Input
Amino acid sequence: MLEGVRVLDLGSFITAPYAAMQLAELGADVIKVERPQGGDPFRAFAGGLYSPQYQAHNRGKRSLALDYAKPRGLAVLSSMVARADVIIVNLRPGAAERLGIGAESLQAANPRLIYCSITGFGDDGPNRDRPAYDTVGQALSGWLSLFHESSDPRIAGPAVCDAITGLFAAQGILAALYERERTGRGRLVQTNMVESCLAFATEPLAQFFSSGKAVKPFGRTALSQSFVLGCSDGRRIGPHLSSPEKFWQGLLTALERPDLGEDERFSSREACVRNYESLAAALAATFGEQRLLAEDVPFSSALRLDQLEDDAYVRHLQPISRMHHPRQGELRGVRHPLRYDGKRPADLGAPPELGEDKLGAADRARPGGRRGKRSDPLRHRGRCATVEPHVESAAGLNIASASAAAQQIIEAHCSGPSGSPWTMAPEIMATTGTRIDEMPATLAGSRPTIANQQTLPMLMGSRTM
Output
């Protein structure tokens, strides 16, 4: 659905990478641009450079190792921006401008660019310059108060605030892409972790606005009549009765406990809400799942993560995808939850290793900033298990079409007069890959040659963008 949309992911950790992966799920070509020294810090979260935490938010992308804090790297990034549709960053306010990648300068070069900026606290205000991670956003938004009791104030569960922020960022980008079809111009899309968490807490906030009382951790469970109950085989289930009377009556029938309905403490829904703790204790007696099914009571087994693929219904949904990485081996991930006309988007490929892809001719600016058609060898690695090694021909790329800074780099390392097309020598083979800031100082011969069989990542590689 987003085929032909190119996204530059300059983010780290969760918010920006997760937003970019949502776009990759919908078919966008996502290039993760990372610093050569270690890349995204989430890579090393569990040791090595391919942690499960990194994998979770970076499927279906390509990775380019590029030090854009240096002039040469920034020149190459600028030439990529000229052909990009979207760029996503998650930095403190002002940091992008100091690096030369702020929205104003990049959109001046590419007015169609949609620039998404994700921060912790927003772009102004007293907290704008403070660092923020998931728990910080949960704490300031009040979200954290909904998930723990004061007697046991430990953090539990996944990084909710990070994921929510990434989802809102992706939503904003999609709206801006749709608007651009009418206006032809990009947008600056901004969101932050605190406001994203607040926007996701609409129900508890509405309750507070109405009653003036803060919602407690078990406030929603009492209102929704949700429980965790034990079964005779030792498993747990999660019934959710909500408000329809028929589900309460069905539960009493399944339990063969009509006496609970006659108890004054549980004689009405309002009474059940007031006496939630007592009702939960009364329902703790064991019973079988089949009776609940027969009485049409909303419930499910409370599965652990290691039990998901053993459950018949979860297997039917097929939410887990299998991926193969040539060095990391077989991997698993969670599929996109949406279907279009009854079909899922294509499965994403494995998350890339740091600098796994190289910058090729099709990724740089064309004259006038137009998007050129990508040649067959330049396939989207994120949706292919493997790409055959090849030598990328750059025939037809005019050096004068690149930015002035990028032009100086090309002229310094490639033979031929400025402004004339050039072609990479076919005998050059991609082997180790050289970063942009490690290019050889001189290249001999009438045609480009690479010292020690190293490649110019902006020109060719075993996987070329």
User: Anything to note?
Assistant: Residues 364-465 have pLDDT under 50 and may be disordered. DSSP finds 17 helices and ten strands in the chain. The first helix runs from residue 15 to 25. Residues 6-202+319-334 form a domain with the Rossmann fold fold (CATH 3.40.50.10540).
